[in-house]
Amino acid sequence: MKVVSAEFITSIGKIAGYKDYGMPEITFVGRSNVGKSSLINALTNNKKLAKTSSSAGRTRLVNLFLINQRFILVDLPGYGYAKAGKEAQKEWKKLIDGYLENSNQLKIIFVLVDIRIKPSELDKQMLNYLYFYNMSFKVLATKADKLPKSQIKPSLHKIAVELGLGDDDIMPVSAESKLGLQEVLDFIDTTIEYEKLKPNTTLISTLQLNKKATKSNFNAKKQKVMNATKGTATKIKTQANNTKGAQKVSTKTKHTPRYALKNRKGKK
Ligand SMILES: Nc1nc2c(ncn2[C@@H]2O[C@H](COP(=O)(O)OP(=O)(O)OP(=O)(O)O)[C@@H](O)[C@H]2O)c(=O)[nH]1
Ligand SMILES: [Mg+2]
Asked: pLDDT tier at 230 (50, 70, 90 boundaries)?
């Protein structure tokens, strides 16, 4: 399968906000910082789709992305980020569990583990949970580019033993080197019978309407700023022209939008 389009649908902060879009969902779980959001970006070839960070705890909401107008990739917050504090961890757990319990569209769960790190108790608990509820999953060993080629197989074996799986149940992937990405897409393809899926026209037109609305809001804001600064620019121009020996002021005076000034000031 080839990804030809990827768009952000929505973020959910409370599971009550979860909505069934009537399309297959493919979901990424794993400890914080393991590379879930980066993998979604690499699969869709769009570095800006999901927010990533070198520090753990970046994704705090359930984020949904519409792919090829036919299925949804779901980016979940990570688990096991101790520094986030007990309250935040509890909230994220509620959100992850709530999503797994509530989604009727969940077709595959990709459980991500770092290829260099022994799977944690939380990874094992996640797998037990998925076994218990008979959910389809596949383990992906991330950041494979961080290991020399010769160490990939032995590392996969160690992870498999730790998780009680066969070596073939784990696929190595890398958002950096792109290793395994086509295999992941093909796996999604065969599991959801991609060819048989029809585009969800209601969702697509809602997203297009939202996009248009955002664009026109932006244009209206821009116009307002231009109008507000117009007077100032003319005044400066007149003052400059009135000054003896003044250089000719270009009629293309650049306006600095007020919000840009505000932001810069705030950053100091
Ligand atoms: N070398 C390498 N680095 C990676 C790879 N995937 C992710 N990273 C890095 O790992 C860090 C965490 O990546 P994220 O994608 O934000 O991880 P996450 O699992 O979404 O983290 P949370 O949102 O906190 O749960 C970032 O610095 C990424 O650049 C990979 O395949 N190779
Ligand atoms: Mg993330």
From this structure: low
Q: Is residue 249 predicted with pLDDT exceeding 70?
A: no
User: Could you tell me if the CB of 89 is within 6 A of ligand 1?
Assistant: no
Domain ranges (residues) in the chain: 6-199, 204-243+251-267
pLDDT confidence bin for 219, thresholds 50/70/90: low
Given a cut of 80, whether residue 211 has pLDDT beyond it is no
Give the span between the Cα atoms of 155 and 117, in whole angstroms: 9
Cβ pair 110, 135 in contact under 8 A? no
Pocket test for ligand 1, best of 28, 41, 48, 53 (most atoms within 8 A of CB): 53
Token output for 210: 């939202």
- Indicate which residue's Cα is closest to atom 30 of ligand 1: 143
> Is 2.60.40.10 the CATH number for 6-199?
no
Q: What is the pLDDT of residues 40-69, one digit of tens each?
A: 999 999 999 998 888 777 778 899 999 999
Two tokens, residue 58 = 């970046």
Measured by CA distance, the residue closest to atom 26 of ligand 1 is: 54
- Whether ligand 1 lies within 6 angstroms of the CB of 31 is answered as no
Count the Cβ atoms, other than its own, within 10 Å of residue 249.
Answer: 15
Q: Lay out the sheet containing 6-12: strands in order across.
A: 6-12, 62-67, 71-75, 25-30, 106-114, 137-142, 170-172
Closest-lying ligand 1 atom to the alpha carbon of residue 173: 31
CB 64 within 8 A of CB 9: yes
Ligand of minimum distance to the alpha carbon of 38: 1
Distance 29 CA to ligand 1 centre (A): 13
